[in-house]
Amino acid sequence: EVQLVESGGGLVQPGGSLRLSCAASGFTFSSYAMHWVRQAPGKGLEYVSAISSNGGSTYYANSVKGRFTISRDNSKNTLYLQMGSLRAEDMAVYYCARRWELLGYAIDIWGQGTMVTVSS
Amino acid sequence: DIQMTQSPSSLSASVGDRVTITCRASQSISSYLNWYQQKPGKAPKLLIYAASSLQSGVPSRFSGSGSGTDFTLTISSLQPEDFATYYCQQSYSTPRAFGPGTKVDIK
Questions:
Q1: Non-local CB neighbours of A110 within 8 Å, separated by 6+ positions
Q2: What does the pLDDT look like over A52-92, one tens digit per residue?
Q3: Shortest distance, CA B91 to any CA of chain A (angstroms)
Q4: What whole-number distance in Å separates Cα of residue A53 and Cα of residue A34?
Q5: Do A106 and B46 touch (CB under 8 A)?
Q6: How many Å apart are CA A43 and CA A89, to the nearest integer?
Q7: Contact A45 B49 (CB under 8 A)
Q8: What is the mean pLDDT of residues B49-74?
Q9: Alpha carbon distance B8, B11 (integer Å)
Q10: Residue A103 above 90 pLDDT?
Q11: Which of A5, A45, A95 to mutate to probe the B interface, most B CBs <10 Å?
């Protein structure tokens, strides 16, 4: 079964750090670009970060640039999001997602999401 | 960056109704437009990719159309399980922005 499972969310104080992980299974992880998409409580979807299949190219939304780092370990089939200098506005459910070229670069697989709460 | 808008932001409909949601891009995105359905507490689900291609396993009552800047998602006969929020997303260029969403609820 094709699956993405996020972990690492939790409660963190403003200014703190957190690392999210996303374990992939059921497909050749190293063949796919991957994304992080977040959703603040009661809000819409926000495209946060992306990484190419070999990790050589990355993208960050302006809202997280300089504070977040996306990376991947293809030997471990795992995607990461290192988050620093966290702010109240970073509080959201963070989804790991797979992008597929053959589907017009649509996101065809999503994880269940992990909640990040930023509060003192 | 390409901006995405959707209309309406919400709508009320009855089971069996035909429902149409519109998505507009701030510049041409060819056919690189995708539609997702999200239910409360769940991850989004891909319905339509490349503007009009039905994702595997998605019921045929869902259809998409459009190209360039204007796109439409149509549900031909609304079913109880279709009450959800629908998002469009452009996959033409980075950042691959989402629209603000359209919430479909029960009339």
A1: A4, A37, A95, A96, A97, A98, B43, B44, B45
A2: 999 999 999 999 999 999 999 999 999 999 999 999 999 99
A3: 6
A4: 7
A5: yes
A6: 12
A7: no
A8: 98
A9: 7
A10: no
A11: A45
